[in-house]
From TrEMBL:
GO BP field: coenzyme A biosynthetic process
Protein name: Uncharacterized protein
Signal peptide segment: none
GO cellular component terms, A-Z: cytosol
Any one GO MF annotation of this record: ATP binding
InterPro entries: ATPase_NBD, Type_II_PanK
Organism: Macrostomum lignano
């Protein structure tokens, strides 16, 4: 019954020597967020390697998630389990009662970036990242920017510093979970928090529940992939003249521009729109909002490499929308985008970190002063 509620259980093989710090956490962890429950557990495959397993459950099936972990591990009252996420704090007693173990809470901010840094530091990109999605839409080959837009793009591109092929650091870690954030990560593991905001995954799913009738990531993104933004978004032909001498340049007439714009211009109600089109416009709206922040910070810091994390980007359509954005706007066209295969960086970091590590993490962490670049 518990496995019926399992969303996914992916695995990643690593050298056992890299996981010695997990002994204190029973080689497992729980990240109970505000939307999903992410579980990390390990399997010793007997040849000097471990398989890290990343299991995902919806929060409404939290009990199934706990029973699933209990069946996978031989836990007893002498063992300790590391937990993170707001729900692990709220439901700490429930976790202890169901699993019969003592728990150690690891701060989510620390665990998120400990897990990310571990993956990036120790494993090749092709192991931890999805292949970059292809974007073959011919409309993106027809863009001819006007002088003002071209100058703006060139100025932003000039801010991005060169990096050797395959070089991972420095980079931005752009996490899109229930909330969102962007962090600058250096090769020595030091970080600087650049941005946090709440208009992210939780709000996205809430809007989807109200507007298209489901708050399930997979279903919403499947719907969005079948939608047509041009049915509900303002398109170029709605606002610009089709002229080779336009000061705005020449862009494809059918290219979407303002999400949901047609609702205002043509007095549309929700009943007039296909759910798939609404879903696609919602996805694009949240991505445009997030990507504007990411590209601004990349330009400000001169950073070329960006790694996206969170379960939102586990769907191919979301990754494709990021690539489309990069073809349209500013410096993102010369940046390197990578999408982590797992949204369990916090669970992984919680298993690896100790309370003393968290103290050291916050002592070393910097919060951005956006009046200056960290490169200055």
């Amino acid at each position: 019954m518990d496995e019926e509620h399992l969303v996914q259980d992916d695995s990643l093989r690593v050298d056992a020597a890299l996981l010695t710090k997990m002994r204190d956490s029973s080689f497992a962890a729980i990240d109970r967020g505000s939307t999903l429950t992410k579980i990390l557990y390990t399997v010793d495959i007997g040849d000097g390697n471990y398989d890290l397993h990343f299991a995902t459950f919806r929060n409404k099936h939290f009990e199934s998630a706990l029973n699933y972990l209990k069946a996978k591990l031989q836990l007893n009252a002498d063992r300790r389990l590391h937990v993170t996420g707001v729900g692990s704090n709220l439901y700490g007693d429930r976790i202890k009662e169901t699993l019969g173990v003592n728990t150690v809470f690891i701060d989510e901010a620390a665990s998120q970036f400990v897990g990310f840094y571990f993956l990036l530091r120790h494993l090749p990109l092709e192991t931890i990242c999805h292949p970059l999605p292809q974007c073959n839409d011919p409309i993106f080959d027809q863009i001819q920017r006007g002088e003002t837009f071209q100058r703006l793009r060139d100025a932003r591109v000039a801010l991005i510093k060169e990096q050797a092929s395959g070089e991972k650091f420095p980079c931005l870690f752009a996490i899109f979970g229930s909330s969102a954030g962007v962090v600058l990560v250096r090769e020595d593991g030091s970080i600087e928090v650049k941005h946090r905001h709440l208009l992210a995954g939780k709000s996205f799913l809430g809007a989807c529940q109200l507007l298209v009738g489901t708050g399930d990531y997979q279903r919403v993104l499947d719907m969005a992939a079948a939608g047509k933004r041009g049915n509900i978004d303002t398109q170029v032909r709605d606002i610009l003249a089709d002229s080779p001498n336009s000061p705005y340049g020449k862009m494809p007439a059918t290219m979407p521009f303002f999400p949901f714009g047609k609702a205002v211009d043509f007095n549309k109600s929700l009943e007039d729109c296909r759910p798939e089109d609404v879903a696609q416009s919602l996805v694009s709206s949240f991505i445009i909002n997030f990507m504007n922040v990411v590209t601004f910070l990349a330009c400000f810091e001169g950073i070329r490499n960006v790694f996206f994390g969170g379960n939102f980007f586990q769907h191919e359509f979301a990754r494709q929308e990021v690539v489309k954005f990069s073809k349209l706007f500013g410096a993102s066209s010369v940046m390197s985008f990578n999408f982590l295969k797992t949204g369990h960086t916090a669970a992984l970091g919680a298993a690896l970190a100790s309370p003393s590590d968290v103290v050291d993490f916050f002592a070393a962490m910097k919060v951005a002063d956006l009046g200056r670049s960290s490169q200055q």
